[in-house]
Design a protein that fits this description.
By secondary structure, the protein is α/β, with parallel strands linked by helices. The chain is 39% helix and 21% strand.
Length: 247
């Protein structure tokens, strides 16, 4: 992008807090933003024997609400030389793309790309009921499990991964005073940002990947400057552009 054609976010200083900056960093850079990366979480396998055991059973559906759930479940499938026979539902296009990359056929991506959207998509099925495998984060809220159970599904929700604080990223955020905005993709990242910089977060514009992360921001007494309409880098970019150009 040349100097004569500044991007929509020209000069904005925006931090990404997920483990890898990914596609969002490129999109923000292309719009002229000054992109910083302070990873606040490290994602590790849970080593939960319940997940390995569940993958040896038969389910009607497997539901993924994050790329990490796909990756860690995929590792167990490969190590056990096991294939999924169940239909696959993904919370959004990014998660679905990762599932497809691992050779899974994705049967459901809700129009509203968040957990409540998934519940609505299951509610719209002609045939409800059956067994659902939901590999999740250790810190995942019970919203999806309870929503599916209310629709008549039997839900197994073993822990696929845990999130740990990234001490180096937290230290980097503590020392950074030129920021204007921070992007959060999980409640865990919000928690660790608060631990790192405390009330200074209230002086920044905070962007969220979806309702669950937004709820975590508000629970800390902070305001959400924008929330992605879909669970993807493009969705986050849209929220950031809207927030930065209407303030």
């Amino acid at each position: 992008m040349g100097d004569e054609t500044p991007g929509i976010l020209d000069g904005r200083s925006i931090a990404i807090t997920r483990e890898q900056p990914g596609e969002l960093a490129r999109l923000l850079f292309n719009e002229g933003a000054h992109v910083l990366h302070f990873p606040l979480i490290r994602v590790v396998a849970s080593n939960d024997p319940d997940l390995a055991a569940a993958l040896m059973q038969d389910f009607d559906w497997v539901v993924f609400t994050s790329v990490n759930a796909v990756l860690f479940t995929g590792e167990l499938l490969r190590s056990g030389n096991r294939k999924l026979s169940a239909s696959v539902a993904c919370v959004g296009s990014t998660t679905a793309a990762e599932a497809a990359r691992l050779g899974l056929t994705v049967d459901m991506v809700p129009e509203k790309q968040h957990v409540k959207g998934l519940i609505e998509a299951f509610a719209a099925l002609d045939r409800r009921g059956g067994r659902v495998l939901y590999p999740r984060s250790e810190l995942a809220a019970s919203t999806l499990k309870e929503g599916l159970q209310a629709l008549g599904f039997v839900v197994d929700d073993p822990v696929a991964y845990r999130t740990l604080p990234d001490e180096e990223g937290m230290k980097g955020l503590q020392l950074q005073y030129g920021l204007e905005a921070i992007v959060f993709a999980s409640p865990s990242a919000v928690k660790h940002a608060v631990a790192a910089v405390g009330t200074r977060l209230a002086t920044l514009r905070l962007y969220s990947i979806g309702p669950t992360t937004s709820a975590a921001i508000r629970a800390c007494g902070l305001q959400v400057a924008g929330e992605a309409r879909e669970h993807s880098a493009e969705g986050l970019l849209g929220a950031i552009i809207k927030g930065e150009t209407t303030r």
